Amino acid sequence: MLAEERFREIQKYVESHGTVTVQELTDLLNTSESTVRRDLTELHKRGTLIKVHGGATTVGTSVRTRDEELSVRRDRNTEEKQKIAAYAAELIEADDFVYLDAGSSVDLLIDELNEESAVFVTNAIGHAQKLLKKGYEVLLIGGKLKGVTEAIVGAEALESLNRYNFTKGFFGTNGVHPQRGLTTPDSEEALVKKKAMERCAQCFVLADSSKIGQITSITFSDMKESEILTTELKDFSYKKYKNIVEVK
């Protein structure tokens, strides 16, 4: 197969699948990995797709490798986040033992809380302070404080989480993608999110529309393992997933 023919096949496959791996393209084209990688490099240079580690994604999908300051994220898509937060708060019932992940979307959930008998555990100092001021019983896990997102991470945080069995957990994410799952730019935060999810009977992910279809560096969960709370889906291909809830 000539190079331009491969380029057309690769472009067609990427556009239909969103994100693909080198192995998928190797099988599709019946060629070597080195050839596929060279082809992806060329198509990336042409601007028709984005080459990422281990594969490629469509131009419309961004891949971020760094997190942003909490204060910056808190002021973005606030109206959407507030709708999602209000819906999420109603899911918390009497005597729930709840894990709250660090992040701006979960921070807004705290403002909407009404259930007085729930007990909370969090890895975010800001969350703990807000919960305490509202009169809730709150436990803060131990570990290393990460400056950018104000989240507690590290080996001690993972060990702390091993002690708990949560009825529900509420999580933030930087990206939601069918193939790449739920992602975050930070490897330490990814480990904490993954461990906390393992300790929850039910997991809810708060993701405004800007997170849908996005990919960042580290996957911490499969997309289908949690109930994802978002607003109106702009990409209709996501409507087929029964675990995605569109909050009105």
UniProtKB/TrEMBL annotation:
Matching SMART domains: DeoRC, HTH_DEOR
Record bears the keyword Amino-acid biosynthesis: no
Key words, A-Z: DNA-binding, Transcription, Transcription regulation
Keyword Cell division: no
Annotated protein name in UniProt: DeoR/GlpR transcriptional regulator
Source species: Dorea formicigenerans
Top-level division of the source organism's lineage: Bacteria
Gene3D superfamilies for this protein: 3.40.50.1360, Winged helix-like DNA-binding domain superfamily/Winged helix DNA-binding domain (1.10.10.10)
UniProt-listed InterPro entries: Carb_Metab_HTH_regulators, DeoR-like_C, DeoR_HTH, NagB/RpiA_transferase-like, Tscrpt_reg_HTH_DeoR_CS, WH-like_DNA-bd_sf, WH_DNA-bd_sf
Pfam families from the UniProt entry: DeoRC, HTH_DeoR
Domain HTH deoR-type: 3-58
Gene Ontology MF, one: DNA-binding transcription factor activity
